[in-house]
Specification:
This protein has ten helices and ten strands. The chain is α/β, with parallel strands linked by helices and about 250 residues long.
Length: about 250
């Protein structure tokens, strides 16, 4: 049913000086699912993400979110609509505490603009919600630690907390497991599953065991085009998908 589709791209294309990075991609993400975008290096996954959130402007194609055409909207406008992305590179303030990082993200509820120099009394009103989010991502014991002191995996959890502060209806995660050890991967995977209970998640991810475990639907990109789509059991056995990975040295 069309009502079940929260994010839809039709004919999404991006050219860079004659090089076609994303070519005529159609993508439909169902509401309240975890949808993974996978493919070998250079397949166009991150470019696709950048197009969906308009950090890059499409050369061609249209994007709809919640039935509304968002093509040409600014990234900030798209985020305010509830479509929020978390970046592959951790984007936190290193010398603020975990609580303060989340509180900065919560400042949007005070105004449409960020005010870094609001009075302590005004900001203190946000502390209860900040601590709630900090605890929700398993960082309660680190609330007063500076972000720079956090282990890498905990920084990823903090990044998700700051993203959740924007109250997204849909969350785009760009390689949430990049650089993580096995324990952190388990922790972040559990966190994504929790976050997805009342939201939609679209993620770019290289870790196939994570993709197999978490995803309801997988879209496989190769050379900027959709190669296959479906549940893991289907796409993992697709001869074209196997060839795309084996042929480029990726398992």
């Amino acid at each position: 049913m069309a009502d079940d589709i929260i994010l839809e791209a039709k004919g999404l294309t991006k050219e860079f000086k004659g090089f076609v990075a994303v070519n005529n991609v159609d993508l439909s993400v169902r509401r309240h699912t975890i949808h993974a975008l996978i493919g070998p290096n250079g397949a166009g996954k991150t470019t696709c993400f950048n197009l969906l959130t308009h950090f890059l402007v499409p050369t061609a194609g249209r994007i709809r979110f919640n039935g509304r055409d968002i093509t040409g909207s600014s990234p900030a406008t798209i985020a305010r609509m509830g479509l929020v992305r978390s970046f592959q590179i951790s984007a936190v303030f290193p010398h603020l505490s975990v609580r303060e990082n989340v509180r900065v993200a919560l400042q949007r509820v005070l105004s449409t603009s960020f005010f870094f120099w609001r009075s302590e009394a005004t900001l203190a009103k946000l502390d209860a919600r900040a601590i709630e989010l900090v605890e929700a991502v398993g960082l309660g014991d680190f609330a007063e630690s500076q972000a720079v002191e956090l282990p890498y995996g905990r920084k990823r959890a903090l990044e998700i907390a700051t993203t959740l502060a924007l109250e997204p209806e849909m969350l785009l995660l760009d390689e949430p497991m990049a650089g993580l050890g096995q324990e952190d991967i388990k922790r972040i995977a559990a966190l994504i599953r929790t976050v997805a209970k009342n939201r939609t998640v679209l993620m770019v991810e290289h870790n196939m065991s994570v993709v197999a475990d978490l995803s309801d639907t997988i879209t496989v990109l190769a050379r900027g085009e959709v190669l296959a789509e479906g549940p893991y059991e289907k796409v993992s056995k697709d001869p074209q998908v196997v060839e795309a990975y084996v042929g480029t040295g990726h398992g």
